[in-house]
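User: Teach me something about this protein's shape.
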Amino acid sequence: MTGDSVVTGLTPVRTCVSLDSEGMRLRRMVPAIAVAAAVTTAGVAVTTTGDPSTAKVESAATSLDFGSVDFGSSELGTPNSVFLWESPPTRYIVVLGAKFGTLGQTPQIMTQRLNVAANLAKKHPFNRIIASGGDTHWLPIAEAQFMNIGLIRRGIPVWQMVNEVASTSTVQNAQNTVAMLKRMGGTGALIVTNGFHMERAMKNFRDAARAQGARLVFRPAYA
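Assistant: First, the predicted structure itself:
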């Protein structure tokens, strides 16, 4: 029996998933179903920031038409896409938090991370997103919950999100998320963050996996 925290509105709740023979059979069936479903599923448009430096990525993340984001054989054949398709129930998209403004203003680096995470999630609707980030200033809401709002605005359904709300540093992002992945039967994850942050984040996640005896594979997904 494995447990995880699922977003309902903005409040995580606990659910349990049984890994019996039926569950294992479903795990084998999901990749084929996922490919067929993703090819026929359209994205939901939301808002853009208007910043030229992220316009291309944001346009892809918020597109109404998968054709406009080059969804096809070349997209499915990228290393990160193949990594997710290999095992949708056990491969996750982890988006790391960033310090929000005093009143909850979204920093540019967080906008970039959400754009990439949303774009991946639309192409891989059977892979779940872990939003990792704890307290933000004096506000009674975690970075992960702010990220939920951003992902919803980009057309990602709440059932595709899982929150990690206790971390206040990259080291804690890694430690807490690795523990969650172990509980949920995860085998690996894409780590979504910016280039300047990626090397440190990947090291922290791999160190956390070794320390916790978790056999997990991590790949970078640059924002």
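Now, about its shape. Residues 21-40 form the longest helix (20 residues). Confidence is low (pLDDT under 50) at residues 8-49, 60-73. If you'd like, I can walk through any region in more detail.
User: That's plenty for now, thanks!
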